[in-house]
Design a protein that fits this description.
Shape: elongated
Largest sheet: none
Number of helices: 11
Structural class: mainly alpha
Helix content: 55-70%
Strand content: under 5%
Distance between the termini: 21 Å
Number of strands: 0
Radius of gyration: 17 Å
Amino acid sequence: MTRGVLACCGAALMCVLLAGCAVPERDVTKFSVAELERLSAEDDAEAIKELSVRYATGNGVEKDGTKSLDLLRRAVDMDDAGAMFMMGAAYATGVGVPIDEAQAVMWYEKAAAKGNALGQYWLAIMIGNSRGNIVGSWAAAAPLFEKAAMQGHSDAAFMLGWIHQMGETGKIDYEQAANWYRKASETVLNQKAQFNLR
């Protein structure tokens, strides 16, 4: 499960990056570019992140990777944990910057330290896979998965189930595995967790 998790999850990570990264208080994805520009001028971090995504994808504006990164850095400078996660995702996937797993880890750590569930989850993935100059293990990743799972991150709960099922913490614990798979199933329709509960 070393490189496989990053490979299979790369597309999912990219979708998260391009979709914004968190469920905001309001759905800025439905705002016009003009409205986002106005809110961005007022230092609205959610609007700035959405504008960054729009410029990265060319959604309603001419695609401009430089402007996208400038906007994202502006949200990071505002100490926005979601923007920190997005910066990590950019480095992990090479969106607008060269792929640099050590930089991705650094940004995931910053987001995770602020309680960002996506930052916690992806930092745990990097630790479990010993990526980004980290010598890690799935046991070392487990506490971060748990923090993310407790915030409703279904895939983090699934990974905890897998860790316990496979004995990655030093012993196989099917009861704990089943508990985490159930939690993963409660949050969203997590078919992997439902399959593993059979």
